[in-house]
Protein: GGDEF-domain containing protein
Amino acid sequence: MGDAHSRCSMPGDRQVQRARRAAGVSVCAALLTDAGLWLVFPRSFTDLHAEFWVMAVLALAVDARPYVLTNRRARSVVLPSICFTFAIALSWGFVAALAVQLAGLAVAGVRMRHTGRRALYLAVQHGLALGAAALVATLIDAGPGWGDALRTVAAAAAWIGTRYGLDAIVGHHRLRRGPEFIATAALLLLGPVVLAAAQLGLTVVPLVLLALHAVHRMVRSAGEFERASRTDALTGLPNRRALQATAMGTGGALLLLDLDRFRTVNDALGHALGDRLLVEVGRRLAECVPAHDLLVRLGGDEFAVLATRVDGPASARRIAAHLADALGTPFALDGLPVDVSASIGIAMQPERGGDGATLLRQAETAMYDAKQRGAQVAVYTRDAEHPAPDLALLADLRAALQTGESGIVLYYQPQIAIATGEVVGVEALLRWRHPDRGMVGPEELLRVAEQTPVMRRLTSRVLHEVVGQVAVWQAAGRPLRASVNVSVRDLHAPGIVGEIQDLLHRYAVPPELLQLEITESALMADPHRVLDTITRLDRAGVAISLDDFGTGYSSLQHLRRLPLSEVKIDRSFVLGMAGERGDAAIVRSVVDLAGSLGLRVVAEGVEDERTWRLLAADGCHAAQGWFHARPMPAGDFDDWLLRYRPLPGCQGQIHSGV
Structure:
């Protein structure tokens, strides 16, 4: 990969020496130029009043602390000396002002370690700006009062137009045009005020300099605000906005890193240590990303590197390998070694250039392709224009939810009370008739949508349809409790409680006829954050069921604290309980535990009579499964319900009518 991507990004002794040499050359050049101006234009330096020398000394003093607007990708410098050199140009002419300005530039160049090229550009830029201002001031023959004010404003406009016009010609891009422009205009218009104060008396000048300090504070505050808006609060790295604002030149590459299994680590260690891990990942990546490249945190566990010096895909792959190696050493968090790896997607910047949004989208596609294939690195190619299958499915689902004809349907599976054989409720199961793929099941839909904002829209759609269907059954004299699966993302949404209450009120459905199901593993990943939401739902009369019980890592303390009404035994235990003593023992233990906590128990996956009888013997409250009925659309469920008749002694054979 070369020296450019070495682990150490600090400048070496050779760079420091080169910067010092450049500063020395700039100072010598400024002195020689000023001497030449003195020799060529001696009359411009005769009969200079004390006010001139005060302004000149102040110009050199303030340029020791130039105003800098900067981040890792661009730097813009505003010289405070322009306040004084502009006033000198209006009063004593262009040559005297240029001499002072060049001296001020030399002072600023030493402080900022400007290269010779940078110092020369600033000298030409400010020299031309001063020349334009002096020319306009000479052409406008104005008297005292408003005429003099018009002359000053016109000269300041010429100064600004020349400087930033030159920027536009040479193609310089500045990050903070607003604050920089305001600061420049304020300094220029403040110059004549300082001059007038100096003419009144030197003792007044320090008071006027307070205005100069105010400009400095304004620039500093604007810079801090801009940095904050472009900086990730957790890691201190540039954020997505900074990446979007960066000019995407040709010959570069964007590398998108997504940490593998970070959610598992975050759930196991907690959010505090998860945040610490992200900080350490950012720090380690920053150590191996050179200064001419840009490292950003896009959000969550995603980072990106905009590499500016890439010869082709092979070079980009070498950079990706270097980044992956940097994460290869385990991270020590509270004495626990944590292994971290990343899937990396690469998008190459085309020769004709392109926008950042397209490049980021291509890098995301390549990253997802790497995850799907189990490869660590993938490069986006034009042959992969079609998005990965899950990305395409997610895009189709998002579009479907925006239209009325979405193809989203709900199937219902009855839940039977084991003691009486009565149908006590249903579970609503999501299906989607995709126009090309056919019927898409709930597992695939949830896997694609659960970690995206689409999940909330999907859940809202399901809740609306389920509550409406419950209202239809209630009006027909069949009040049935309907269970709806929701994700942790849904319970984190601040408006879900109000949304459910509004739906129940709109359809006049009692809250006890709606139950929300959440998986054990999802709930136990962050029980504290969802506790408030499910407590409010419980107070509103909406029950919470813990789904797939026995497959996660729940603690008895959480089960005791959470306002649960029901636990559902995972089908993997129920299916094996007739032939495996271990599964039967687990089911029996879950029933006993739930009973001691006052919770209702529902068994999933009941497919034969023997399992039904074993559940009855264990004291399980209800069951669902193919032994009674498969999931079916609402119309078919109505027909099934009309035919269903539990026989007396319901713990024996059940006549389901199917």
About this structure: The chain has 25 helices and 19 strands. Residues 1-12, 651-658 have pLDDT under 50 and may be disordered. The CA atoms of residues 67 and 217 lie 10 Å apart. The radius of gyration is 36 Å.
